[in-house]
Amino acid sequence: MDQLYNAFKRLFCLWKLSKMQNLKQVIRHPLAFARGFFIPFSLSESVILSAAAVLIGLASGAGIWGLKKLIALSEWFFFTELAHRFSPLGNWQVVILPVIGGLVVGLILHFGIGKERYHGVAGIIEACALGGGKLPYLKMPIRVLAAALSIGSGASVGPEDPSVQVGANIGSAVGQWLHLSEERLRSMTASGVAAGVAAAFNAPIAGVFFALEVLLGELNGSAFGFAAVAAVTSSIFIQATLGKQPAFLIPEYAFHSLWELPLYLLLGLFAGLLAAGYVHLIAFTRRQFHRMIIPTWLKPATAGLLVGLVGMRLPQIFGVGYTTIENVLSGVNYAAPLLLILLLTKLLMTSISIGGGFAGGVFAPALFLGAVLGGAFGTTADVWFPGVVSAAPSFALVGMAAVLAGAVQAPLTAILLLFEMTQDYHIILPLMFAVAVSLAVSRKIGKESVYSLPLVQNGIRLEHGRDVEVLQRISVGEVMTAELTSLHSDDSLQQAMLTFQKTGHHGLPVMDAHNRLVGMLSLQDLHSASPMDQSDCSQKKVADFCTPQLVTAFPDETLAVALRRMSSRDIGRLPVVSRADHTRLLGMLRRGDIIRAYEMALIRQADARHRLGQHRLEYLSGAKVTQMEIQANSNCIGKRICEVAWHPASLIASVQRGSEIILPHGDQVLQAGDILAVVTSDEAALQDVQNLCAPHMPEKQ
After folding, report:
1. Which residues does 394 contact at the CB level (< 8 Å), separation at least 6?
2. Burial 336-352 (b: 16+ CB within 10 A, else e)
3. Does residue 199 contact residue 163 with C-beta atoms inside 8 Å?
4. Class of 467-597 per CATH?
5. FRET label pair with 308: which of 319, 399, 430, 503, CA 20 to 30 Å apart?
6. pLDDT (tens digit, 9 = 90+) per residue, 27-79?
7. Contact between 400 and 367 (Cβ < 8 Å)
8. Which superfamily does CATH assign the domain made up of 45-242 to?
9. Could you tell me which CATH number the domain at 620-693 has?
10. DSSP per-residue letters across 171-192
11. Res. 22: pLDDT tops 60
């Protein structure tokens, strides 16, 4: 009763605060208020954040429910209401519908959203990696409307990416309202993504792993907990409102014979090739539409015209294509040539729809491509190898997971998604086999996924959710440890144990009598050499147990290259050697060195962005920022800034002298080679500053 009394008392105090017009403080600091309110109940911050994850799950589930209803309404409007009005046109009505939809979507996105660096999930990944999970969530309703109209009018796009955007924006909104740190905000955004995928497919496990694999790029413990809570909550909401059925109604399949595995291997090869082609074709069509000299808002209508012309003959390519997928999975007798034609046209029309600017995702089209590829493969295999194939549609199911894994490069998500949809363990062996093969093939052809390729093309490389381009600017030689502790090849294992205990390292270089690098000895090697009895450790030599085949780094390599080498081999340390002599040890590069270098680089990058952001926020209301160098013999050299006759419509925002950034003041003396960041409001002012920085030309006599 005392706790209940305290709770009501606090609510009464809150009401009094609102009467005194102090409610703004509560709105500005909701997390602090929540902590204070729940103190009598002894609830920790993690419990409050778990409650926030529940809220994100409920809101995401409701948002996905609304998106599905809006898509159904849009499909009815275009293909029933508008189709009836254009019925005198015959088959040409099918062409007009995507054009109208593209025109409406183009206008909505152009005037409601404006220009975006990246679309869909790629923008969310960038926001989590570089922006701490902050998303412009107020624009989410416009994106949802555009996606529903795109799918409803027949564009070959999917609803899963918009579902991810709904969940991510809700998670980001809750995190920003609670004023969470960047790490917690990323976790809340990932929780929203998990909830969105879980609600879209009624697959909470796949939703969690999609958020961790694709969005964060790592299996983060705290993020996993919040994402699981949000995903389960959204699934419960969807099951309560739309029923417990999975995304696809799939009959039971079984894996009967090991002789089928070579066929699944071949299917995985084809799926990997298809996934790589899918990724690069989308990127290619985006570039082609970007080069088209027509208004941006008109490009979706152009893409809609092409989709409509193809849809006259092949209506299966319209929209999401779930009906065709279910037919293939249910064993509807499609001829293999028809399935291959559907594969090629869906591949091309999806690329045109995405590249042309329709709002929607690439997730569902990847499932469509995998289903028709597997269906054609299974039908052909059943003819060529009668009695070996247990069920031809099972290849369609496995093909869905294989193409999806190769396209988004998220194998766990693909396997778990199909496993949750079938709820049958028997298909898991060929499923994992084909997914692994497809992933290997797609990565061999192109290392980037359909989501990461647009980021890479703009200079942003992410590994484990971090911008490795930051590490491209730092060399191994800058951060390696030059003062080394090493072992000698003739040292005993007992001496090596003492050295490991003294240094605390997990691996040490081994040198020979001529001070040449001959190997590495790790703690694991040491324990393997003397697992139980350590009595003869004084007799065993380090040279007999060290690893002679070394993975090394060079001092002039970037940290990004070294990090990829360490990640591919799962190594925690690299010897740094000379390029001229690989036995000459220069230093050691350990994961701790990379982490410290990365954090320092991020601080410098954030500091530079902060200064630039301040200048732009303070001074750049429609003005232009130009960098120009003070040339030799310029009239500016040797003068203070206040002594130079600058144009009244210009402003010196910063002075860069070498690697130093100087905030200018009137007494700052300018030197040759200084780079000025100049803010100007018109061309006359810019030209005047350029003349002042240019070399002085003496007047002719």
Report:
1. 253, 254, 255, 378, 427, 430
2. beebbbbbebbbbbbbb
3. yes
4. alpha beta
5. 399
6. 454 544 554 444 444 456 677 788 888 999 999 999 999 998 999 899 898 88
7. yes
8. Clc chloride channel (1.10.3080.10)
9. 3.30.70.1450
10. HHHHHHHTT--HHHHHHHHHHH
11. no
